[in-house]
């Protein structure tokens, strides 16, 4: 492999992020940016990279989909027996990145993680398309499998088993996590690589402190 990317660059000029335009807490700004990402050409504005660490401190990152965000935190769903599930259970802190290239923006989040309650997980699972419900039952996520036929066979068996049902039971090892933020940083690309970075830190009294970071 030989890739030369030294001359790939973009001079960001889409927008600015200044203190006078930023709220005292991060959630109104995230809400605004997320809705603007929805209105952009981004095909999946709710895609977010979640990074975890294993018992040896080795990091791993993967893309999941945000399904709900409130002032309490950011919710996504997954298989609890996946690699990320095991790592979250052992070390319940993660880093999250949203990257909206069309808007020359990103948001970085750090926080602790908790499972959402079973009722919420079941309600969401059974609201998904049937093929997605079957997919969750089909895949032993992160396990080594022999070949693609293994998945296709399991999927076919499940489709036959639930051919007369539109709603499947939720697997016990599937559900939601909420990322409860301790840091939320907003990054807006600017010209000459002098980007705008505003970081909100959760204080001991549960308020938010806003700071500008050098790019």
Structural notes for this entry:
There is one protein chain. With 215 residues, the protein is α+β, with helices and mostly antiparallel strands. It folds into two domains: 19-126 and 170-212, Electron Transport, Fmn-binding Protein, Chain A (Pnp Oxidase, Chain A); 129-169, no CATH class. The protein is built from five helices and nine strands. Strands 1, 2, 3, 4, 5, 6, 7, 8 and 9 form a nine-stranded antiparallel sheet that branches. The radius of gyration is 20 Å and the shape is globular.
Shape: globular
Q: Label the structural class.
A: alpha+beta
Q: What share of residues are in beta strands?
A: 25-35%
The CATH architecture of the largest domain would be Roll
How are the elements arranged and paired?
Blueprint: H1 26-38, E1 47-53, E2 59-65, E3 68-69, E4 74-79, H2 83-90, E5 93-100, E6 105-115, H3 118-125, H4 130-138, H5 148-161, E7 174-188, E8 196-202, E9 208-212
Helix pairs in contact: 4-5
Quickly describe the structure.
By secondary structure, this protein is of the alpha+beta class.
Looking at this protein, list some descriptive labels:
Pnp Oxidase, Chain A, 2 domains, 215 residues, alpha+beta, 9-stranded antiparallel β-sheet, 5 helices
């Amino acid at each position: 492999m030989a890739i030369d990317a030294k001359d790939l660059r973009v001079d960001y000029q889409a927008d600015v992020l200044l203190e006078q335009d930023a709220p005292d807490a991060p959630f109104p700004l995230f809400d605004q940016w997320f809705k603007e990402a929805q209105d952009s050409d981004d095909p999946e504005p709710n895609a977010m990279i979640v990074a975890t660490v294993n018992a040896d401190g080795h990091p791993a990152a993967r893309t999941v989909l945000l399904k709900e965000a409130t002032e309490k935190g950011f919710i996504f769903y997954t298989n609890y027996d996946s690699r990320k599930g095991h790592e979250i259970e052992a070390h319940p802190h993660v880093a999250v990145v949203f990257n909206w290239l069309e808007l020359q923006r990103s948001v970085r989040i750090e926080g602790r993680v908790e499972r959402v309650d079973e009722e919420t997980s079941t309600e969401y699972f059974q609201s998904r398309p049937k093929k997605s419900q079957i997919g969750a039952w089909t895949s032993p996520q992160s396990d080594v499998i022999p070949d693609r036929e293994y998945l296709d066979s399991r999927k076919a068996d499940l489709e036959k088993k639930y051919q007369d049902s539109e709603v499947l039971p939720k697997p016990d090892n599937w559900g939601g996590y909420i990322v409860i933020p301790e840091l939320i940083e907003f990054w807006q690309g600017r010209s000459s690589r002098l980007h705008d970075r505003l970081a909100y830190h959760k204080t001991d009294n549960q308020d938010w402190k806003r700071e500008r970071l050098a790019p």
